[in-house]
Amino acid sequence: MNLPNILTVSRIFLTLVFAVFAQTPGLVAAGAAVGFFALAALTDLADGYLARKYGLVTTFGQIMDPVADKLLILTALFIFSFESIIPVWMAAVVASREILVTVARIQALTTGKVLPAESAGKVKAALQMTAVTLALLYRLASISESTKMFVSDNQVVLLFIINGVMLGAVLLTLWSGGVFFRNLFAKE
Fold first, then answer.
1. Count of CA atoms in the C-beta half-sphere (13 A) of 132
2. What is the chain's mean pLDDT, rounded?
């Protein structure tokens, strides 16, 4: 197993650790959740960069990297939707698209077709990560004694910003899913 694949597998482990801390009450746990999410997101950047730069692209990586990415994002979105930071419908739309595209991508790979990520999909992923990061920081700030009052006084505005970014992510999620399936069916 090469380094990019190890990073991909570590992202799955880090997602599980993130989920535990994200659901544990308290400021320390909320801070740890931010740290583990950031570390997992960095492994996503590193594994793709290393695989392309050093020619370490493998079938395992092509299958598991998007699965690990989706696991991280969907875990965070569902945690924050249950905490009413992100609307449940947004998490459900993103989950539906991600599952459909990932299954189609894996099926295509098993038949020898490689379906690279489109630029819209990369921007979508960046917006999803941004929305989750904002939700993490909002959650952390709402627990901290030094920022709790600020969050309370500005809750509507802060949630509007988070959900505005998330709405952009949802729209790009739908758009990039449409582009993906258009390209998939055009190649058949």
1. 30
2. 92
Q: Give the relative orientation of helices 88-110 and 59-82 as an angle to the nearest 10 degrees.
A: 170
Domain range holding 141? 3-186
Task: Determine the pLDDT at residue 5.
Answer: 96
CATH, residue 9: 1.20.120
Q: How many domains does the chain have?
A: 1
Q: Burial letters for 130-141: b for 16+ Cβ neighbours within 10 Å, e otherwise?
A: ebbbbbbbbbbb
Q: Report the distance separating Cα 19 and Cα 29, nearest Å.
A: 10
Task: Compute how many other C-beta atoms are within 10 angstroms of the C-beta atom of residue 122.
Answer: 13
How sure is the predictor about 188, in pLDDT bands with cuts at 50, 70 and 90? Answer: low
Average pLDDT over residues 22-51: 94
